[in-house]
Amino acid sequence: MIEIERLTKRYGATTAVDRLSFTVRPGAVTGFLGPNGAGKSTTLRMILGLDSPTAGRATVDGVPFAGRPRGLRHVGALLDAGDVHGGRSARAHLAALARSNRIPLGRVDEVLAEVGLGKAAGRRIGGYSLGMKQRLGIAGALLGDPPVLLFDEPLNGLDPEGVLWVRGLFRRLADEGRTVFVSSHMMAEMEHTADRLVVIGRGRLIADESLAEFSARNAETSVAVRTPELAALAGVLRGEGAEVDVTDEQFGIVTGLPADRIGELALRHGLVLHELATRTSSLEAAFMSLTADSVEYLAGDAR
Ligand SMILES: Nc1ncnc2c1ncn2[C@@H]1O[C@H](COP(=O)(O)OP(=O)(O)OP(=O)(O)O)[C@@H](O)[C@H]1O
Hints:
Elements: E1 2-11, E2 14-24, E3 28-33, H1 40-47, E4 55-60, E5 75-78, H2 90-100, H3 106-114, H4 130-142, E6 148-152, H5 160-175, E7 179-184, H6 187-191, E8 196-201, E9 204-210, H7 211-218, E10 221-226, H8 230-239, E11 243-248, E12 251-255, H9 259-268, E13 275-280, H10 283-290, H11 292-302
The chain binds adenosine-5'-triphosphate.
């Protein structure tokens, strides 16, 4: 379990992480979402002891990670897939990691096969595509068979097949009871990947809940109706407590009543319907409006 308590990081006048508190539990994939510059990478670096907090704490199973010897057996991480020695082969890179963490060398070929790099294992990493580097970074995270895994933007550079593979892998790791914490700046990526969401903006916590809760709280459902008798139908629906936004003579958007109820009311009042369609706003739109303040702040700040 990862515990973040009032974690704060300042770089001069910039507060990258601002009194952040949340817990990441085992057995689930937790998405760590925020727009560019929200403080995700800084938080992950502090969890790994690569940056020290200005204030607050980050612990893994109750202990600051920097205090752990043979770290890869406790926490596996993919931070920056490009941060590897291009002249080495994937096998040599992982073997060096295994040696410094006292992990049996037999694990190297196991994880290379697992991420689909078995055939490319002897090639120089410098010639790898971004997607292959991501797979190698994931192999490095898996090497120590750790109970806690952190991935910073792991879907970057992966093709659709790679994205599906990563989602399956994260699901399996979580089902095995591990803690899986995955950052992204796109809700569309996390919508099909995560069970829980920690959303931050400008270094501060915006949401910490299950995807289902986030969805129920933020995704708006409305019903589009098309009818030649819109004025009459709108009157009936408003009488039932719905809001009707009349967009043109025959078309309106209804909120506050489900489509089946609208259909029944139309029938009861003898009103013809030409179209009745439920619409759910995207979670991406909800995420963007929730974090809009922090994006504006950053855009203004950069000028
Ligand atoms: N070493 C540093 N020195 C100064 N400022 C920094 C440093 N590292 C991060 N920052 C600033 O802290 C803020 C948070 O950055 P961070 O990289 O953690 O965000 P992020 O959410 O990971 O964004 P991205 O999705 O773009 O990677 C940014 O304003 C960034 O410019």
